[in-house]
Each structure stands twice: as C-alpha cells, then as structure tokens.
Amino acid sequence: MALQTNSLKVVNDLLKSWGLIKREDEAKLTIIGGGVSNIVVKVSTINGIWVIKKALPKLRVSDEWIAKPDRVLIEAACLKTVARLIGQGYVPKVFKIDAVNYAIMIEYAGDTAKAWKGDLLKNVIDSSIVVRVAQAIARLHNESMRDKEVRTSFWETWNFYELRIDPYLVTIANRHPDISERVREVIKFLTDTRLALVHGDFSPKNILLLGDGRFWMIDPEPAHFGNPVFDLAFFLNHLLLKALHLSSSRILDSARLFWAEYWSKADLSNIDELREQTVRTLSCLMLARVDGKSPVEYLSDKDRLTVRSIAKRHIKSATNDIEEIYISLSSCLG
C-alpha cells in the first residue's frame, strides 16, 4: 500500500510540474502495471486520458538489479522511431518526454486492451496474431537496417547490457561455470553484431491487443541498434516456456509458425548464420528465465528442472538447429 501511495504522489507531482493539473483532485490516477522496472499509471482528467511511465533506478526483483532510469528516454525515442518506420498504428503516441524526471506520457490503449500474454496463458491461440506479430518485427528489422538516423540514435548499448546481457546471460554464465564459455560466445555475437533496431523486450507481455483489432508493441526500454536475433529468441522463448507450462502443442505450433513467418519476411544478410545464432541465444534465454535475475513466475518446480536440463544440454552442444529444441520440448508435453 505504501508503495502504491508513493507512486501516485510521484505522478501527481509530475502532472503539476507539467502544468496539466493544479490540484490533485483534478486527476484520477490508477496504477496499471509497470512490472519490475517502472511506475505506470493511467491518468484521467477532463482534458484526456493518458499513461505516465516513470523508470525506477532499482528493479523490483529478489536479486540486486540496478539500471539507469535514462532507459525510459530510449523507450520514447524507440516508440517514435517505430511509428516513423512501420506506422503509428503499431505503437502508442508519445505526448511528453521529461528527461529530468525520467518520465514519459503516452497514449492510453483503451479499457478493452489486453496483453497477449493473458490469452496465451489460457491456451487461447489466434494464428493470425502470430503471423501479424512476426511480420511486424521483421518489417521493423528490415526498415531500420539501412537507416542512418536509427543507427546513430540507438548506437549506445548500455541499456541492453544493464537490462538483458548482465541480468540474463552474464548471470547464468556465473551461476553455471560448466557452460560459461558457451554463454559468453553468445554474448559476443549479440553485442558485436550491428544490423538493425532491436526492440529488446519483444514478448507476448508487451504485445498489447487493442479493441479495434490492432496491436501495439510496447516497452522497448532495451532498444538499440544491434543483432535482431535477440528479438526472435526472446519472443520464441516465451512461447516455448508457456507451451511447457500448459503442456500445449498448440503453443509449440505457434512458435513454429512465428519462426517460419519471420524468416519468410526478413531481408537480412547472412540468414543461415543468423538462424543459428537465434537458436543458440534461445537456449541461453531458456536457462536465464529460470536461473537469471528475472525468472518467469508461472513455471512449477518440476518445469524449472525440465527447462534447466533442456537448456543446458543445448547450450553445451551449441545446438544451432531449431528443430532440435522443438523435439526436446515436444517430448516433455503431455
């Protein structure tokens, strides 16, 4: 309760400093999320409804996880860039950027909007969404590849390191010395390769299904100009973990569909090498979501043991064929 009260006060203070309200009773504030890393509040006034997001310097997880709050400014820049490259319909509009207080004000999705993650956890599958999401991220990668403004604006990668490389990959390398060398090989090609704009938090949780049939890609705090295989591996990992959790061959089939659709639309060089890198990254991320700093919340202890076993086996052997991952997981589904 104290955390919620403080969060609402923070947002009220921002609204006053921006000149949007004079008194606290002029706005109705509702905490709508934020995950482990942000304060996210719906703001309703007589002049409109918006979402305010303020980055936290210390993430709310059991392990020590510090990340510079400047990342929310990168998120805002990425949302604007996605709108320019593939269309405003894929992301919320950005109305306000406060670089002093590390806060942004963005468009509200509407009361009927929902995160795609919720449907998947109910084993509700819409193949058309899988296809459209794969096409959208492929298009973003394609359109950003030769864009000089994107390359320049998103060249720094400190946010990707603080939000993904260190808490996920460096952590499992340290906690599992027997696979450390293999994991560090993955870290190297993820950080050395610079090809396209990478969302960095591309998962069903951050695909917001709107009431009018559109979807938004939200929360790109780790965005950078880097190796696009991270987005694929990150997204596929969430599908595979949910397939195991629900013992769902339908979600596993959705992962296959996403993979096929993405690569049919991707206009990247060295496709074969990137496919192999995606699979190796996927194995590492599977392990990271049970033994990294941000483990998924829905897996049982038995499922965690299964994921750890599958992931470590494929990391050790440097598996680079996606079918081998599918086969390993299929054998564990009921």
Polypeptide structure, described:
It is a single chain. The protein has 334 residues and is an alpha+beta fold. It has 2 domains: 2-107, Phosphorylase Kinase, domain 1; 114-330, Aminoglycoside 3'-phosphotransferase, Chain: A, domain 2, CATH 3.90.1200.10. It is 52% helix and 14% strand. It has a 5-stranded antiparallel sheet, sandwiched between helices. Strands 6-8-9 form a 3-stranded antiparallel sheet. Strands 7-10 form a two-stranded antiparallel ribbon. Helix 4 (127-144) packs parallel to helix 9 (249-265). The N and C termini lie far apart (41 Å).
Write the layout of secondary structure elements.
Layout: H1 2-17, E1 28-33, E2 38-45, E3 48-55, H2 71-86, E4 94-98, E5 103-107, E6 114-115, H3 116-121, H4 127-144, H5 148-153, H6 158-175, H7 180-192, E7 196-198, E8 207-209, E9 215-217, E10 224-226, H8 229-246, H9 249-265, H10 271-291, H11 301-316, H12 322-330
Antiparallel strand pairs: 1-2, 2-3, 3-5, 4-5, 6-8, 7-10, 8-9
Secondary-structure-derived class: alpha+beta
CATH topology heading of the largest domain: Aminoglycoside 3'-phosphotransferase, Chain: A, domain 2
Number of strands: 10
Average per-residue pLDDT, rounded, comes to 93
Query: How far apart are the termini?
Result: 41 Å
- Count up the domains: 2
